[in-house]
Amino acid sequence: SLVVYSLKDKNIPYISLADFDLSNQELRQELIKHIGNEYNSILDQDITGHSAGAKRVDRSLGNAYQGLKLGTRSARVIFLYSFSSGQSKGATLGEIKRSATTMNNPASAVVEAVEQLKNNLFYLQATEDRYFFSNIPNLNRILLTKMENVKDEDIEKLESELLRGRLKGEKLKVYIWVENSVNIPDTEDLKLVVLRKDDRSLIDSILKNKGSSPRINRNTLFFLVPMEGERNNFEREARKRIAYQSIEKDKSLNLREEQKKDLKDKLSKTEEVLKELIRKLYRMVLIPSKDGVKELDLGVPTYGDSRGIDEEIYDALKTENEIIERLDPLVIREKYLRDNDFLYTGKLYEAFLRTPGEPRPVDKEVIERSISEGVAKGLFGLGEMLEDGRVECRYFKESASVYFSEREVIVRAELCKKEEEEGEIGCRIPVGSPDVKIDNKPVETIKQPVGSALLEKKAISGLSLSFVIPRGKLSDVMGVLRLLSERFQRIEFELRAVEGEISENEIEERIKEAFNQMKIEVNITPH
Question: What's the whole-model pTM score?
Answer without folding.
Answer: 0.70
